[in-house]
């Protein structure tokens, strides 16, 4: 299974009257970190389970390099579920070797890979411990090792950073960057949007089973509402309210924060600000991924 593109093409899934997915469509490219974000129940886990063959889609197709995914290609996917899928009474090393062998590795190769990932993820002192005796953070590390131990060609991770301390987050982030750098497509869901914004090449925002925004973070942010911060200490209250393209304003001390329409001309605002006296600050800001997510979800909910 060579490097390539994982495609989710118009995948739909219903449970009676409940629509879990409606024409879900996106792709994850070779060497890309793709963030899959949405509220609880939005359809992220359902999409991942269909990609893994755990669930069957009502319609649509999952493809790898343009061809429908088969049992053999699914064996080359590394999957990390949100709920831990480990054997609690099994020792860490034994478990990783067993899982690697299930994916087709020889016993010797499985041992080498398991020991390698145990060391890289800081579990060497816990290699002979039962999983149930580990802290939740270390269990999460073992779960990641289980997704990586067979050297997969695709990584699909559901909330991989949940419950991790900052050091473990850094370790996992570095591992995901390294895997992507080798050409592996990596898709992961997370509610930690600041982390998604920092790590991902592209992001897909899903709501009610539909992809409502998808693209590079900078492009998504550029398409959101711009905010101007203006420090004009002599400006009277409401000085910008009547300006074209200014949708809302708020004041904190001498600083006025303006929410601008997409077609607003910030130079008009600057001239108006200078007309009131000195301007100590005039900065244009784009929304963070968290702010963009709130806006997209709110707008979709109101639609």
From TrEMBL:
Keywords per UniProt: ATP-binding, Nucleotide-binding, Transport
Domain ABC transporter: 6-233
Gene3D superfamilies to which the protein is assigned, alphabetical: P-loop containing nucleotide triphosphate hydrolases
Pfam families: ABC_tran, DrrA1-3_C
Superkingdom of origin: Bacteria
Molecular function terms from GO: ATP binding
Family (UniProt): Belongs to the ABC transporter superfamily.
PANTHER family documented for this protein: ABC TRANSPORTER, ATP-BINDING PROTEIN
Name of the protein described by the UniProt record: ABC-2 type transport system ATP-binding protein
């Amino acid at each position: 299974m060579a490097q390539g593109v994982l495609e989710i093409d118009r995948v739909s899934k219903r449970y009676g009257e409940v629509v879990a997915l409606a024409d879900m469509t996106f792709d994850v490219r070779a060497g890309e970190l793709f963030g899959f974000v949405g509220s609880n129940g939005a359809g992220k886990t359902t999409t991942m389970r269909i990609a893994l063959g755990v669930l069957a889609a009502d319609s649509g197709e999952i493809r790898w390099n343009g061809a429908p995914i088969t049992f053999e290609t699914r064996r080359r996917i590394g999957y990390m579920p949100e709920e831990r899928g480990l054997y609690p009474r099994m020792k860490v090393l034994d478990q990783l070797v067993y899982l690697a062998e299930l994916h087709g590795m020889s016993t010797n190769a499985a041992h080498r890979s398991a020991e390698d990932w145990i060391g890289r993820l800081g579990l060497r002192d816990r290699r002979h411990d039962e999983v149930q005796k580990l802290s939740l953070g270390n269990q999460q590390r073992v779960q990641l090792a289980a997704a990586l131990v067979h050297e997969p060609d695709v990584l699909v991770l559901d909330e991989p950073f949940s419950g991790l301390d900052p050091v473990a987050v850094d370790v996992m982030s570095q591992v995901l960057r390294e895997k992507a750098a080798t050409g592996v497509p990596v898709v992961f869901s997370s509610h930690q949007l600041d982390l998604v914004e920092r790590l991902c090449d592209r992001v897909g925002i899903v709501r009610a089973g539909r992809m409502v925004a998808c693209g590079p973070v900078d492009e998504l942010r550029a398409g959101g509402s711009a905010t101007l911060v203006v420090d004009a200490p002599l400006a009277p209250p409401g000085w910008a309210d009547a300006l074209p393209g200014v949708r809302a304003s708020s004041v904190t001390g001498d600083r006025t924060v303006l929410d601008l329409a997409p077609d607003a001309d910030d130079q008009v605002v600057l001239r108006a600000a200078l007309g009131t006296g000195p301007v100590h600050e005039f900065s244009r800001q784009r929304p963070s991924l968290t702010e963009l997510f709130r806006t997209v979800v709110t707008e979709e909910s109101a639609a």
